[in-house]
Amino acid sequence: MINKERYLLNAIGDDHAATRAGVEKFLELCQKYGNGVIYVPTKQHVDSTILASAVGQNLVKSLAKNKPATLPTGQKIELCSDRTFKNYKNADVYLVLWATPEMISTMENDSYTCRASVVVTWLENDADNWVSDYAPLELSW
Question: pTM here?
């Protein structure tokens, strides 16, 4: 069993600062471990969400069209949703944005090669079960 690094940003709603902090931690972990996936509830209109303000609208538009991006340090990042997660089970790092309990469970149980994960919640108690099961490090922003 791989020992995973787990991080939580316990945000409520469209918290821009938490999203930016989650993206920054995700990119840091990608540099450390390898390729990453940003997992969102839906890709519809993702280019007009706070993710676009965190990483840039052009990058998000490209990711939403299933075009992987390559970081300057060589790691590949991709974007998936609930509907497409089954095709993204082999990343090294996951950023679960605006996470529901189901998304967290899917990432935790179905990501075969995950070395690190960052979860940014949408509702206050969405990560409670994950926190009690795995005790992620809670980040402040």
Answer: 0.92
